[in-house]
Amino acid sequence: MEEKTTMTTSTPDSTLPDWRVTLAFGLLLIVLGTVGLYLSVFVTLASVLLFGGFLIAGGVLHGIEVFRKQDRRKGTRLENLLIALIYIGMGLLIAYDPVAASAGLTLMIAGLFAAMGAIRLTHAWQRRNEARGEAAWHAVSGIIELALALIITLHWPISGLWVIGLLVSVEMIMNGWLLVFAAFAIRKAARGESVPAAAG
């Protein structure tokens, strides 16, 4: 009995976003991230100042919310007002000396890397006899994170000028490539695919 092969074409999905916009945004992130690698000091200071601005804005909005609610409980109202003032104060300190703020944040990042590395190595040791592949992956990741923590600490406080900018730039590049791949997937889905189907 001869089998006949027919082609079924899926209809394009009009609800998908424009792949060109996604592609353009992804390429823009890649370019900006690559430039940021060479201007890591500028990206670091800009990121720290932006963080300070968010703190100030958050403190102001929190303070407005405290007075808007007009909570009669003096203790609760005072606590919320103090939180708002702390946010604003931290934001102003960061804006006043972003270099010192970046050094402090970098030291916190080093501590975070060290903690994550120790946790991964501990997990790898616990899983060494159950899942060797997973344990090896966690061990390698833990060693890399501990090495990053050591490098950042040994070069501190100078590392405070470039670590944050480097991390932000790398994150932009990675997200940019993800958007590029997503754009091609959207284009493929939007155009529809011809799928062969066998008919008796």
Number of domains: 1
Overall mean confidence score, pLDDT? 78
Strand order, largest beta sheet: 1-2
Radius of gyration: 26 Å
- The portion of residues assigned to helices is over 70%
Unreliable residue runs: 5-10, 194-200
Could you spell the SSE succession in H and E letters? EHHHHHHE
Strand content: 5-15%
- Count of alpha/pi helices: 6
**Largest sheet features:** 2 strands, antiparallel
The count of β-strands is 2
Structure description:
It is a single chain. The N and C termini lie close together (8 Å). The protein has one domain. It has 200 residues and is mainly alpha-helical. It has 6 helices and 2 strands; from the N terminus they run βααααααβ. The protein is 77% helix and 6% strand.
Tell me briefly what this model is.
This protein has 200 residues and is mainly alpha-helical. It has helices at residues 19-38, 40-69, 74-96, 98-126, 132-154, 163-191; strands spanning 4-9, 194-199.
Question: SSE layout and pairings?
Answer:
Blueprint: E1 4-9, H1 19-38, H2 40-69, H3 74-96, H4 98-126, H5 132-154, H6 163-191, E2 194-199
Antiparallel strand pairs: 1-2
Helix pairs in contact: 1-6, 2-3, 2-4, 2-6, 3-4, 4-5
Keywords:
extended, mainly alpha, disordered C terminus, 6 helices, single chain, 200 residues, two-stranded antiparallel sheet
